[in-house]
Amino acid sequence: MTTPDPTQVPSVRCRAPLLSDYHPEDPSFVEIGDVSTVPKCHVGSAGSEDKQPGEWTKLLWECPWKVAREGEKPKGKLLSIFFAQDPARELMARWNFFESGKREEERIRDRLSNVESAFMYCLGEVQDQPCRSCLKSQGPWAKCVKLPWGTEDALACANCRWNGQFQRCNFWRAAQDPGTLAAADRGPRRNKPSITDDMAKKAFDELDRTRKVCYDIHDELDAAAEHGKLDVVKALARQLRTWADVTDPCHKMLRARFSPASPTTPQ
Q: The pTM is what?
C-alpha cells in the first residue's frame, strides 16, 4: 500500500520521516488472533508531549485481530484509508484507564470501532480546544485528537469513536443538520417498525457478551482488593462504569422493540 497524495490527506503534510516497517510486506503472513507480545501501556495527560510512533503503532499497523480483518484485507473503508498512512504519534492512554498493556490490547480488539479509535489517535491532529466529552475525561486516550479529513462518524474525535459513541462528540454534532441531530438526541422510538427481530437478537447477544466481560472484571476487582492494589481497583471500577455505558444503545433498542406503547410505572 502507498501513502496517499499529501494534497488529498492534509494530516500527512510536513511529517518527519518515520520507520518503514509499519506496513506488513505481505499481510497473509500476519497471524490473526491473540497477540503473543503486548507492549506496555503508555499513559499521560492532555499536556504530555507526544511519543514517537513505536511498539503500539507497529502492532496497530500489523492489525492481527479478527474483528478488524476480512482475510488479508482490513475491514471497512476507514481502516483501508488508515493503513495507507504513516502514524504521527504513539498511543497514549489516560492515567488509570487501562491497568496494563494486556488489558489495553484486549479492549482495543474487542470491537472494530475501538481499533478505528486507536488508529485515529495515532493519525489525527491534537485539538487546541477539546470536545466536551474529552474535557470530562470520557474515552481512553490522553488527548482530544481528530482527523482533519473525516466523514460521517469519523468526524468525531478518537475518544468519542471508542465504543461507537461518536454522536456525543462536539465535532460530529457541529457537522450535522438539525434533523439528524434531533434523531440522534431522540434515539429509537417505541415499537419502531425498523427494529427487526434479528436486530433485537443481536442486541440480546451483545448484552450477554458485555455481562460476561463485567463478570471477568469483577473477578479481577476481587483479586486486586485482596492484594491491596488500590490503583488497580480504581481502574477496574472505571472500566465497569464504561462497560455499563456500552449497554445503553442495546437497552434503548430493546425497550423500543418490546416496551408497551403506554408503559406504566412498575409497582
A: 0.57
